[in-house]
Write a structure and sequence with these properties.
The complex is a heterodimer of chains A (358) and B (158). With 358 residues, chain A is mainly alpha-helical. Chain A has 14 helices and 2 strands. Chain B has 2 domains: 32 residues; 99 residues, Alpha-Beta Plaits. The longest helix of chain B has 28 residues. Classes of the chains: A mainly alpha (358), B alpha+beta (158).
């Protein structure tokens, strides 16, 4: 059957026949790097267009419909515009940090791509502590935002960065607790093991109400962590012009923009892996016939479908909910999400010990 | 008690958010609700709302008669001197002098489309039209006389 794993295996064999093991590994790493960079470019184009179309339809508008058929090429035109614009560095800015911050944002996003299983046996790095790795690296993204805000030497940028720091540090806790509830049920930190444990049903169905609550908490927390509305206090268009990237222009701005969308994609990948079974097809218990039909759909399509469903959900949040003030934001985290998450984790632990899941 | 209120708050918050998501989800799936007018393309089939305010006009019937009595209520109501009513005295069939309009001058370039003159008019002589393509090359073309030449007031309008 057609699968991405076969392609990678045949490339691996061909390279090993041609070159020595060291060179083959080098070429493989090079190809993986190119694949990740091109995935970034495609994601940027697709997600920006998707966001604009979704927002337009939710607000009873048409959205981009002039460039190319049905406005499909709008994001190409935007990218071209950003590429030819001047990347200005303000006079009072810390030049090195100012130019390094967007690169750091992209590096963090790239590092997060490593442990994600995009399809069956199609993974850059099969890490046995994948969940820990993801939650550790994703907290580095706050440094790029703080760096950008500090180096800009602009009060709007600094305020946006400080807010974002408070926000990401707080919401990481409830995201971590939500992730932990699946780790407790699976008993493994490896993303591959977590996916394999969902062979006979996804955790969101197998785990009853507690895992559903954990899923809701996870979605709220990652929306806050990626600085998207209704938690877009780091950008805060209405009061801080553009928050931490006020002073950025041209390609440096585009890198921040791209990093935001790629981060959305990555957290949705993690959400799909933990709660919706990653590349695992939709299986119902022991219905062999039904499971067999579902297996015919390639695993990469399952994974992308789930991920894009979650991305759509996050976009739906953005274009429906009213924005929060900074004190409301922290109240929501510390008085609601965190206590609920902790109690929920206890319930999940009891469930895992008692084996009260399917 | 506190715990009860806490959960009540959480559930009512979730319910209201879901209600909002239902509305946007409805709009997302029902594209016929889209209200955007693709203006230069659909110039012939343009569909404007009833209350769209384009410019002030004075409707005349087929006998070239209008409903304006020349009371100058619109002139007094206008906040920025857009309307000037120039009145004259007519002698009617019974030999009595009666006030009527000679010209109702309307300066479109001063008008803010605030609708106050239409509200003020006691005899509904002026209305807002839906035309909005007002650009001209000479400013003097924006000063319009709303009543047609040789038009008369309708019978029975006091």
């Amino acid at each position: 059957m057609w699968s991405l794993a076969n392609i990678t295996n045949s490339i691996h064999e061909a390279l090993n026949n041609q070159f020595s093991a060291g060179w083959a590994l080098f070429f493989e790493m090079l190809m993986a790097g190119i694949a990740v960079i091109s995935l970034f470019a495609i994601l940027g184009l697709v997600l920006v267009l998707m966001e604009r179309k979704v927002s337009a339809w939710m607000q009873i508008r048409l959205g981009p419909n002039r460039v190319g058929p049905k406005g499909m090429l709008q994001s190409f035109a935007d990218t071209l515009k950003l590429l030819v614009k001047e990347g200005l560095t303000p006079g009072g800015a810390d030049k090195f940090l100012f130019n390094f911050a967007p690169v750091l944002a992209i590096i963090v996003a790239m590092l997060l791509m490593a442990p994600i299983a995009f399809a069956k046996d199609f993974q850059l790095w099969n890490l046995n502590i994948g969940v820990l790795y993801v939650s550790a690296i994703s907290s580095v993204s706050v440094i790029s935002i703080l760096m950008a805000g500090w180096a800009s030497n602009n009060k709007y940028s600094l305020m946006g960065a400080m807010r974002s720091g408070a926000q990401i540090v707080s919401y990481e806790l409830s995201a971590g607790l939500a992730i932990l509830s699946v780790v407790v049920l699976t008993g493994s930190l490896s993303l591959n093991d977590i996916i394999l444990s969902q062979q006979n049903g996804w955790w969101i169905f197998k785990g009853h109400l507690p895992v559903l609550i954990a899923f809701v908490l996870f979605m709220i927390a990652v929306t806050a962590e990626t600085n998207r509305a209704p938690f877009d206090l780091a950008e805060a268009e209405s009061e801080l012009t553009a928050g931490f990237h006020t002073e950025y222009s041209g390609m440096k701005f585009a890198l921040f923009f791209l990093a935001e969308y790629v981060n959305v994609f990555i957290v949705c990948c993690i959400g799909a892996t933990l709660f919706l079974g990653g590349w695992m097809p939709f299986h119902i218990g022991n219905w062999q016939q039904f499971n067999h039909i579902m297996d015919y759909i390639p695993s990469s399509i399952w994974f992308m479908g789930k991920t894009f469903f979650l991305i759509f959900l996050i976009m739906w949040f953005r274009w429906t909910f009213p924005r929060l003030r900074i004190d409301q934001l922290l109240t929501l985290e510390w008085k609601y999400l965190l206590p609920i998450g902790m109690i929920n984790l206890l319930v999940v632990a009891a469930m895992a010990i008692g084996g009260w899941h399917f | 008690m506190f715990i009860k209120n806490y959960f009540k708050e959480v559930f009512s918050a979730i319910r209201s958010l879901l209600k909002g998501m239902r509305r946007t989800g409805y709009y997302f799936t029902h594209h016929k609700e889209i209200i955007t007018q693709q203006y230069p393309d659909n110039r012939d089939t343009l569909n404007l709302p009833d209350r769209f305010k384009g410019e002030v006009v004075m409707p005349h019937d087929e006998k070239n008669e209008h409903r304006c009595t020349g009371c100058t209520a619109c002139e007094l109501a206008c906040p920025n001197g857009t309307i000037k009513v120039i009145t004259k005295f007519e002698i009617n069939a019974e030999g009595k002098k009666k006030k009527a309009i000679d010209k109702l001058v309307y300066h479109l370039e001063l008008c803010t489309m605030c609708n106050l003159c239409i509200v003020a008019c006691p005899s509904d002589a002026i209305v807002m039209a839906q035309t909005f393509e007002h650009s001209v090359f000479n400013r003097s073309q924006l000063t319009k006389i709303l009543n047609n030449p040789d038009s008369k007031i309708m019978e029975g309008i006091e």
